Structures are given as C-alpha cells and as structure tokens.
Amino acid sequence: xxxxxxxxxxxxxxxxxxxxxxxxxxxxxxxxxxxxxxxxxxxxxxxxxxxxxxxxxxxxxxxxxxxxxxxxxxxxxxxxxxxxxxxxxxxxxxxxxxxxxxxxxxxxxxxxxxxxxxxxxxxxxxxxxxxxxxxxxxxxxxxxxxxxxxxxxxxxxxxxxxxxxxxxxxxxxxxxxxxxxxxxxxxxxxxxxxxxxxxxxxxxxxxxxxxxxxxxxxxxxxxxxxxxxxxxxxxxxxxxxxxxxxxxxxxxxxxxxxxxxxxxxxxxxxxxxxxxxxxxxxxxxxxxxxxxxxxxxxxxxxxxxxxxxxxxxxxxxxxxxxxxxxxxxxxxxxxxxxxxxxxxxxxxxxxxxxxxxxxxxxxxxxxxxxxxxxxxxxxxxxxxxxxxxxxxxxxxxxxxxxxxxxxxxxxxxxxxxxxxxxxxxxxxxxxxxxxxxxxxxxxxxxxxxxxxxxxxxxxxxxxxxxxxxxxxxxxxxxxxxxxxxxxxxxxxxxxxxxxxxxxxxxxxxxxxxxxxxxxxx
Length: 521
Hints:
It contains 14 helices and 15 strands. The chain is an alpha+beta fold. Strands 5, 7, 8, 9, 10, 12 and 13 form a seven-stranded antiparallel sheet that branches. A two-stranded antiparallel ribbon has the order 1-2. Strands 3-4 form a two-stranded antiparallel sheet. The protein folds into three domains: about 30-45 and about 130-150, no CATH class; about 155-360, Glucose Permease (Domain IIA), CATH 2.70.70.10; about 370-520, no CATH class. About 30% of the residues lie in helices and about 10% in strands. The protein is elongated, with a radius of gyration of 32 Å. The protein starts with a helix and ends with a helix.
C-alpha cells in the first residue's frame, strides 16, 4: 500500500519538535550538577609556561605593504604624539600578560650558574575537591569544561559500538507501536516503567533502560568482548553480561548486562568471546505477563551499563545511593538505592547515539533511476516476461516509483510480520542471498491501496513497520524468487483468493511497463 506522505510528514515534524524540546530540557538538566560534583576529587592541570612576548610583524613584513607613515610607525612599535597615550596604555596592558624579554646569553649564563642537583623538580598537581557549599563560584568557561571532563565519564560513540537490536524499539518516538506506548517512552527523564532511575517500589531505583520489543526479537552484542555471566534473571527470563572492548572511562572496559532474554534462545556461554554485531539471544517473555501497555503481551530488553571501574558482580546487593559514582535520580527520596555496583551509568546517551548511527544507515532515498537499473538487472537475468510482471507490480504499489514508501524502503510494501533479521519473510531466500538481507525497519501510515478491492484492509489508527532493503535490486530479486517459487503465480502476492487474483491480473495488464519496453528497443 502507498504511504500517506502528508500524515507522515506531519508526524515527523511533531516528533522532531518533541525531540528538540526534550534535548534542550536534558541539556539544561545536566547543568544542575552542583550537588553531584560537590566533594568529588579532580586533578587540575599544571599551569602552562607564560609565552615570551613576540614583537608583532609590520604590515610590509606580512607581505601587504603600505606607504602610510602612521601605519609604518605602528608596525615598527612607534607612535605619533596624538596617539602616544593610547599606545603606551596598550603596551602596558600587553606587558602585564607577558614575561619580560630575556636575552639568550643571560638565559645560558643563568643555567650554567645553577648546579644540576638544584634544578627544580616537576611538581605533581595537587588533589582538589569542589567545595561542599551552595555558594556560587566563578569558573573560566574553558577551565570549567576541562574539569567536568575529568569528573564525568565520556559518552562519545565510535563505530566500534552498535545498537543492540536491528529495529527501533516499540517505545521509542520513531517506533511507537501505538499511542499507548508513548507512556512508556524509554528516552524520557520522567518516572515511567522503562526509564532509568525511575521509582520501583518504596526503596528501589530502576538501573536500566527497557527497550520494548515483540518476543523473539534478536539481540546483538554491542561491541567485541567476553561473556562473564549468564544466569536466571527475572520472571522466567535470563541475563547475559558481557565485558566489552570499548571504553567509556579511559583504561576500563564497558560492561553491559542484557536482561530479560529468552532462556531457551541463548547463543553464548560464560568465557565465550563475541564480536560486535554477533547474535547472542532473543527477547524473552516475562511470566507472569507484564501487560504494559494494557492488553499488550510483549517482551523487552532490559539494558544496564557499567564503566567497568570495579571488579565486583554487577549485582552486589544494596549500595548506598551517595556511593554511586555516576547514577543519579530526580526521584530519590532519601532511602532508595539502585541495588547495583557503584560504576553503574545511565546508558541513554550511548543508546541514542548508536540508534542514530543505525537509522542513518537505513535512511534511504531510492529514485526512479534505481528502479530502472534494478529492472534492467531483472530483464537481463530472468527475461522480458519476469521484467514486465515485476515492473507492473511495482508501478501499481509505488505510484510509479514516487511513493514515500518506495523511496525509503526500495519495496512496494513488504510489511514486517516477524522478528529480525528477516521479519517474517523467507529465510531461504536470504540464506541464499546474504547480501540482500534487510537492513532495518521504518514505519508509515499506510494508504488505502487496494483495501476493499481484494487487498489487505487499510489500518488507520497506527503506523505499520516495513522492512528496508539494501537496494532496489534486492527487493526485486525477492519478488522474482517468490514468483518462481509459486510457478509464475504472481497474483498470489496480492491475494490467495481466486476471484481477487483474476481481478488483480486484469488490473495490472492496463499498466504500461515503460522501462521493459525501452529495454526491447
């Protein structure tokens, strides 16, 4: 079915607006650091040597040249009577910021006069702490940023780390399964069941971000690493903990706990080395079921993250809230704890960055030229008849290769109806053609298409998820595979009901396969 571009565009603008506002709130929130920073130890940088005063070059020396005597005098360090006071004042200001000039001869003699053993030793910068007070202090902005870098772990993400699933979570603004999932948006700073540091009961704070998925969604290692723990976790699910070859804090390896995975689909064991992107497990189903949103029976990936600065188990029992190095909560009431070790961090920054990287890879913009090239491939490989059938099907499904759905996915509408990596489509085809595997999912409100004309009934109250193919050739190759599998019965793609199939065939015959005709000329 053809995507409704106006509705989708409006949704995207609202979503972008919401994301921008949340981003601003987050940035402002991060400035409210004082109570967290109070008492923390840092090492200020050593004072840099003051540079020697350097005589500025004249304009002629810089290669521009001038005949103006006043400019020449200024370049030579002289001043006219009219400007003497101003020039002298400026000179004095400059000299207060520079060391007096010392000749090389004097420096050399001074060095010779001092015995070797009396040379001053390098002084290690002292430990200092931020004062534990509400008093306002002034920082030089550059010094402030440098000191914050020393205190807080960095979350700069490289290509050495990826998002743990191939599709957008059902409780993410870009992938909400329905409006009810907005109440479980894991990217927010509010207290909902999916957010980090949310209240859990009277004395516990949530130690993870929960990514909602359908049961069976594949989970992938975020980076290279080694499995250090696999054990029973929560409500009949398991957890896998991996020490990854990725540094959040320099010198320490990031640790990730992948929680609430299906205990029957764990593909690694303790001691195994894993590679970035390796399939390690599938999302499990909590038993008894957790109906969030109401009426939904689905799973989640409970993702915890640690800087790796400690060697204890990720679950050491109660650790006092004020002993946590990085984890903080807006909802702390004085008697709660994360019940995790001290180097727990909020994984949101890394999840956001890696998901954005993933989305950029599937942000396709297929064109009519891509369609023509793909059809030429089909024509050369399978012949004229197959090319005509596929071109007509595509022209019908994609408004002649102009629909948003075609541009973003390369298909005429291959809806996801299963878990990654194939999302319910033929594993045999993708096993035979690994280069054609889907690269992710995207979501649209679908258009009417042939709803009421034998096609699928249009869904209006929510977006549908469609697979994104790595190329239009890959998508058309899948159609060719399907047609051959059913001995040329291409109308089966539209419906399995005979009357509807015949109507579809007659409808397609009216569509001119312009590219295939062109290939024959």
